[in-house]
Design brief:
mainly alpha, two-stranded antiparallel ribbon, 6 helices, elongated, Znf_RING, Znf_FYVE_PHD, zinc
Length: 188
């Protein structure tokens, strides 16, 4: 009988296998749902257009605005494109997660879904953003794992070299002791 792996979000416990992403999170390999990936990586994407920032390369300072409550970073053009935006809203920006009560990313209970559209364009963008964040995370974890493996291999080579030197030294000392024993027994 094989071992079956329980597939659920490591944060919220969601068991929807379609929305789960594998990523390096808090120092371990984890599975998080799309909503939790986005909620816990607020600085990794624009919360309005859901453009993921490649390898944490944020837009230049003059093209971005940060949420006043969390690390979310939005494109300033996205903030200005919101229906209620003005020049003051860009300087006093609060992301959707911080400004909308009970907000959740990847909300499959939204009215569009209830109207028969299973995955809306907005939900698809959120899913892709979470997938890109997971990919970037796993690529970083792979680089770290490779560096650790190379370091361990180098340490193993050095340990083998030291062990060989120690064995050579023991062999030399044993030979020297045997020669001294041989000389002292022939002189007696």
């Amino acid at each position: 009988m094989g071992i079956t792996k329980q597939m659920e979000c490591g944060e919220c416990g969601s068991k929807d296998p379609i929305t789960l992403h594998n990523l390096w999170y808090r120092g371990i390999y984890s599975q998080l749902c799309t909503a939790c990936v986005l909620a816990h990586h607020a600085a990794s994407f624009c919360p309005i257009c859901f453009d993921a920032y490649e390898d944490t390369k944020l837009p230049p300072p003059h093209l971005r605005v940060m949420c006043l409550r969390c690390p979310a970073v939005a494109h300033i053009s996205c903030v200005y494109s919101l229906p209620t935006s003005s020049s003051s809203s860009a300087t006093r920006y609060h992301c959707p997660q911080c400004s909308i009560p009970n907000f959740t990313f990847f909300d499959l209970n939204a009215s569009d879904v209830q109207n028969g559209n299973l995955i809306t364009k907005d939900l698809a963008k959120q899913f892709v953003a979470a997938a890109k964040i997971a990919l970037i995370s796993m690529n970083k974890a792979a680089v770290i794992a490779r560096e650790n493996a190379e370091k361990r291999a180098s340490e193993a080579v050095m340990a083998r070299k030291r062990a060989k030197e120690a064995l050579d030294r023991v062999a030399f000392l044993m030979l020297k002791e045997a020669e001294e024993d041989s000389r002292s027994s022939s002189n007696s």
